């Protein structure tokens, strides 16, 4: 164990997942990347994230449903929705991170996360 808090990223676009991994690593997080909601759900027994960044447009189970499942399983996890969709259409979450993502936008959100 590294002692670093864990961030769950559910993102099907490899370039976006890599960008989020780089930004979150810089912010002091270990990062678990899931390419779809099913992969994230399968890992629930092995992970305990303090932060989750979820894309809404996912193959299979929707980002909205994944967000609900993350909130049910990890009620203290800080939930961030990241999408190209209009932020007004995001499900309830602790923060919105509209795409394109910038390091400054993510940093401002991470400052609010209890670690």
UniProtKB/TrEMBL annotation:
Keywords assigned: Phosphoprotein
Claim: Phosphoprotein is one of the keywords in the record: yes
This protein's record includes keyword Phosphoprotein: yes
4-aspartylphosphate sites (modified residues): 55
Domain Response regulatory as annotated: residue spans: 6-114
PANTHER family per the UniProt record, alphabetical: RESPONSE REGULATORY DOMAIN-CONTAINING PROTEIN, STRESS RESPONSE REGULATOR PROTEIN 1
Protein name: Response regulator
Native species: Microbacterium aurugineum
